[in-house]
Amino acid sequence: MARGEVLAVRQASVSLSGRSILKDIDFSLEAGEFCGLIGANGSGKTTLLRTILGFIAPSSGSVTIDSGGKLASVGYVPQKFALDPYMPMRARDLVALGLDGNRLGVPLPSPGRRRKVDEMLESVDATRFADQRIGNLSGGQQQRVLIAHALIRRPRLLLLDEPLANLDMRSVAGVVALLRRLSQEFQTSVLLSAHDMNPLLSAMDRIVYLAHGRAASGSTDAVVRTEVLSQLYGYHIDVVRVHGRVIVVAAEAEDDAQAAVAHDPVHVAQVP
After folding, report:
1. Of all helices (H) and strands (E), which one includes residue 36?
2. Contacts of 161 (CB under 8 A, 6+ apart)
3. What would be one Pfam family of this protein (predicted)?
4. Are 22 and 13 in contact (CB under 8 A)?
5. How far apart are CA 215 and CA 195, in angstroms?
6. Are 74 and 53 in contact (CB under 8 A)?
7. CB contact at 8 A, 182 and 188
8. What predicted TM-score, i.e. pTM, was given to this entire model?
9. Looking at CB atoms within 10 Å, which of 15, 94, 241, 246 has the fewest?
């Protein structure tokens, strides 16, 4: 790995059941960088996250994480996390599991443990609902608690799989601003997958744009361009800037492709 890199994905390809899912994915993240992993359903976002986590072995290439000497080098917020509203678990209880949920037995209470939990709850602005049942919280509140759970051991890398799905616009803006602040405060690299890049534009240092199992990475201005996206999709793509917005459309000759792009929210974004 190059000096300063926390995550290095080098020419990584993944095949599942004989089918190619990802091909020659290549990008890296440095400490404190915020990266959006953007792509439609089926583009390979979750597979890439699972490969970085080590759940799937790449068929070629490599994935390397610099732990910085930490045992908990990666934090993870999954796409689906079922929370029973009747489960007698408070928000602070779930955050505390991030400290010792991998150990057998009931953890003994201690002032140090509670202090760490309280500090993490405060960091994500969740103190006011820390003692409420986790299943009774709103979607945005639950995301804050899940982020606190993933970050309490101060990992070097935080992976989030579609954390903005099913949140209202206010909650989305709040979660993105929170993640940006924490990435800088903790110097944790953040890789967040999403369909729509719009909410992430003010936060992203770089983008990894997935299509058909391939990726383009770099700054938003460098990636969301006609020549780059045309090569990525394998047919002509127009990138049009109108009143500070970017609209990505397929060429008229590609009727099927145009329809697919028009219905894919990932292709409309405002670039700062």
Report:
1. strand 34-38
2. 45, 46, 49, 76, 77, 78, 79, 193
3. ABC_tran
4. yes
5. 14
6. yes
7. yes
8. 0.86
9. 241
